[in-house]
Amino acid sequence: IVLTGGDDRLWKTWGFPDGNILLTGAGHTDWLSGCCFRPSGTQLVTSSRDTTVRLWDLSRRGCILTLRGHSRAVRACSWHSCGDFVASASADGTSKIWDVNSERCRYTLHGHEDSVNSIEFLPFSSTVVTSSADKTLSLWDIRTALRAYTFQGHVHSCNHATFN
């Protein structure tokens, strides 16, 4: 299954390799910037310019939780490998770690001087990497919400970072 999110404010799942649309989800009020399956495959998370992060249950075919707290567009989202936490990166210069069981923000990561454009968890760890329009990448320990290291060297906005 392939998951996509688009400017049409929708997410879609597609059968692979035939390309049939399996499910479509609507609920965001602006374009989608990110989407990610829960490791179990039964749910997904989406991020949007509408400043929200939404969790969707595939069997219910609907939104089960809307996470609010960013003041500008949410640029990216990521699901932790344990399935209990979602991360979001925002144009407001912050990232958030959301506890999906308690349905609240566990930590807000402050430190970038411009839009945070991506966020990814290092699998099976408490580390995330963020990329920013401030031309830096940062590693964070989500247990403490502290920045552990900053990488500098881009001459323009850094739009994405990931682990191997």
TrEMBL record:
Keywords: Repeat, WD repeat
Gene3D superfamilies: YVTN repeat-like/Quinoprotein amine dehydrogenase (2.130.10.10)
Pfam families, A to Z: WD40
BP GO terms, sorted: axoneme assembly
GO CC terms: axonemal central apparatus
PANTHER family: SPERM-ASSOCIATED ANTIGEN 16 PROTEIN, WD40 REPEAT PF20
Protein name: SPG16 protein
Source organism per UniProt: Urocynchramus pylzowi
